[in-house]
């Protein structure tokens, strides 16, 4: 029975590590606990759409909640591993009152100390297998801290790339280049650079799916509000006389179609055309889609 309880704890630890791995290093569209937390918070925020401050906190709050969930599951998992073997398989420092506490409380305490890499030493494993296994909790705690810092450092550059593209599209819409201006070498270079930026954002949505749940502030910095103008520019370029402009317009249209596919598969599930997907994307972020 003791080993069954310990195996249950090991299963909890593995579940948390699997979720961490798939969220940070091998993203898939098959959501785990982290994806469930993010989608739930996003759904709740949509009901509070009028309160922009609340919506703007969804992304950071979701990341904090996910990291907290990983830490709690790992701590409870290791505590469950220790619990059946407490106190017999552990030694206690002289004068420590830990041995008079409940076995469950001591197990949670030891797990907290180990995952935080404090090394207080008032409770230490005595059995050989525990002495070999328990240091792995400290390694997992260090890995969790490192992964959290890396996650934060990686997500904000992705958000910056998305917002830069949105602002660029807003500025282009404001100047609204004519068909004649677009049908030129400069127009071809413009469409090609937009295709490259759209492809980068598409990769960001694949690699950092949690970026979808970050609010972008005003309309001019929201890709959900401005992506429609990129579609209009692609359509305008496809009717140009110059072959290089038509080619780069096709590249932009293809990049936009790929982006729509990712948005629909991972978040929106409309099974619609790219135009319908982008309209749903704008609605989901409380925006009106930019029109030509």
UniProtKB/TrEMBL annotation:
Residues 75-152 form the Potassium channel domain. GO terms for biological process: monoatomic ion transmembrane transport. The chain crosses the membrane at residues 57-83, 132-153. It comes from the Bacteria. The keyword Oxidoreductase does not apply. It holds the Pfam family Ion_trans_2. Keywords: Ion channel, Ion transport, Membrane, Transmembrane, Transmembrane helix, Transport. This is Two pore domain potassium channel family protein. It comes from Streptomyces phyllanthi.
